[in-house]
Specification:
- With 435 residues, the protein is α/β, with parallel strands linked by helices.
- It has two domains: 4-116, Nonspecific Lipid-transfer Protein, Chain A (2-Layer Sandwich); 138-413, Vaccinia Virus protein VP39 (Rossmann fold, 3-Layer(aba) Sandwich), CATH 3.40.50.
- It is built from 17 helices and eleven strands.
- The strands form two sheets. A seven-stranded mixed beta sheet has the order 7-6-5-8-9-11-10. Strands 2-1-3-4 form a four-stranded mixed beta sheet.
- Helix 10 links the parallel strand 5 (202-206) and strand 6.
- Helix 2 (45-53) packs antiparallel against helix 3, helix 12 packs across helix 14 (335-344) and helix 16 crosses helix 17 (383-401).
- It is elongated, with a radius of gyration of 24 Å.
């Protein structure tokens, strides 16, 4: 009689010391757990071997990306229960990794090993990054950006929708109504207003993606925009969009590292969702270089994901799954650290706006887009890559909702020696779409 699911559930509950708040369906067809609970599908014994050899986020990610694990029902509900019960350390709970190392867990661990079967650990899925060389050199940054963004423009069209904006949208209405495209338009407009863009000004968009910010600024505000990216695929797509809209006289798209931009001064710089790739060791260099590219009185809008500060900063580690499958070499800093580095570079920080809840809404829309066209996405980018994006975006939505990470727009000025910042006495005058 098939019994893998009851055995697995019993062993996990022994390890956790509490009832497992999930239903399990195993490779032999057996099921165990509350019938109304979200279901974790363990498709083969290989999934257990992955979790035993890497009992943390990376083992879970490898099993998911390889298709060894799946979900029936609400992915968010499964992630919440796994995160809260198995992977995160709480005040009165241990992670599964901690438990597996506990001498008192040996009997249950032996039971898991027996259930997993005698075999060597499976090789990581091919989507996993193999790190080479030093962090945040020009070469390593190009390689990391290519891994994430050169997945295929058609794939990103599915996820992002017509706006082709790959950063947090902004819902201007009192309630999160409206389409994703409207919210992305309002985010771009919000950035333009914070930067006080007017006809004839020069804008540098650092990490320009598929060109949406540069095109919006040129079309709606009459600026001359330069967008830079390290992705060849993004640049080719953006240039075609610019040409199709008749903006080639006002928008230039370059494949260029921010460290190599030398044609300042600019009136304004937008950096939207790019600074997470810079790295702590290079952040002051990044901020200083952008400061030098601005004319006196010029503004920087730095839109960046932030992590919560640690009591012991030396204990901070990069998320294993994100680092291996999504954003290689990416680093998140606390908001206070970012502001300090901008000020050290010479900027006067004038406004900080947290839009954390907006990113959760954005990510849920992206997940819905991907799920609606999952088969086509898998044909375009591969089933493994599609599973990576679905997991990372759903988990990130929960992280923003639970205040585990945040996202902030920091407006900073290269204030001239006269001290005249050029900002109004009441700075929050950049409302976009009126409700």
């Amino acid at each position: 009689m098939p019994d893998a699911a009851p055995r697995l559930r019993s062993l996990l509950e022994q390890l956790l010391g509490a009832p497992l708040r999930l239903r399990i369906r195993a490779w032999d067809g057996s099921q165990a757990g509350p019938p109304d609970a979200p279901t974790l599908v363990v498709r083969n014994r290989r999934a257990l071997r992955r979790l035993l050899w890497k009992p943390g986020e990376l083992g879970l990610a490898r099993a998911w990306v390889a298709g060894d694990l799946g979900v029936e029902g609400d992915l968010y509900a499964v992630l919440e229960r796994i995160s809260g019960q198995i992977w995160e350390r709480g005040d009165d709970a241990r992670t599964l990794a901690d438990t597996l190392r506990d001498p008192h867990s040996r009997a249950a661990v032996r039971g898991l090993i027996k259930l997993a079967g005698p075999a060597l650990p499976p090789a990581p899925p091919r989507e996993e990054v193999r790190r080479r060389g030093h962090l945040h050199t020009r070469r390593s940054d190009r390689r990391a950006i290519s891994h994430h963004y050169d997945v295929g423009n058609a794939f990103y069209e599915i996820v992002l929708g017509p706006s082709m904006v790959y950063s947090c949208a902004y819902w201007s209405a009192p309630e999160p109504a409206g389409t994703l495209e409207e919210a992305q338009h309002d985010k771009l407009e919000l950035v333009c207003r914070k930067l006080d863009l007017t006809p004839g000004k020069r804008l540098l968009d650092v990490g320009c993606g598929w060109g949406s910010m540069a095109m919006h600024a040129a079309r709606e505000h009459g600026v001359n925009a330069v967008g830079i990216t390290l992705s060849q695929e993004q640049a080719a797509y953006a240039r075609k969009r610019v040409a199709d809209e008749g903006l080639t006289d006002r928008v230039e798209i370059r494949v260029q590292d921010y460290r190599d931009v030398r044609d300042g001064p600019y009136d304004a710089i937008s950096s939207i969702g790019m600074a997470e790739h810079v790295g702590a060791a290079r952040y002051l260099e990044y901020a200083t270089h952008l400061h030098g590219l601005l004319k006196p009185g010029g503004r920087l809008l730095n839109h960046q994901i932030a992590r919560r500060p640690q009591l012991d900063e030396s204990a901070y580690r990069v998320d294993e799954f994100i680092d291996a499958y999504v954003f290689p070499d990416g680093e998140l800093a606390p908001l206070g650290t970012t502001v300090t580095q901008l000020e050290r570079a010479g900027f006067e920080v004038r406004d900080v706006e947290s839009i954390r809840e907006h990113y959760a809404l954005t990510l849920r829309r992206w997940v819905a887009n991907l799920e609606a066209q999952g088969d086509r996405a898998s044909r375009l980018a591969g089933a493994g890559r599609t599973r990576v994006w679905r997991l990372y975006m759903a988990a990130s939505a929960l992280a923003f909702e639970r205040n585990r990470i945040g996202v902030n727009q920091v407006l900073a000025v290269r204030t001239p020696d006269s001290g005249a910042s050029g900002l109004p006495l009441r700075s929050r005058v950049w409302a976009t779409r009126q409700p």
